[in-house]
Predict the structure.
Amino acid sequence: MRRKRATWAGLVLLTGLLPLVGQAAEEVATLVVPSGQEVRFLDAIWTGEGAARVVRFRFVAPAIARDRAEVEFSQAEADMAHLCEDFALPRLAGEEPPPAQIIISLADRPLDFGLADPEATQFFEAFRPDHGSCIWEGF
């Protein structure tokens, strides 16, 4: 399975995320979402091949931390839908073939992909891109 990873230093390596090139990091560093919390783009990770490709957009959202409990999952659901529609989809425009699935994840702290941290709070939602919209797909 092939995996591509985008980080602040390596965004230009990901086709489909080229719209981020040329933007100042602070333009995408902090985003305000419907719950009012501030989230920061961490990276995008591609897995799979062809029509089975999946892209994960990962964000740091300190307000979801269990010890802070400022934003609960029910509030963060709208945030993840917003991030899919307004952050992920524009960056995937023109990607051929388009990914089969977009996963939006929020974590209360930066985490290495695929590693468990029992102290961390993480929320995930999966979406199917469909004609410029994100269609929710429960896990």
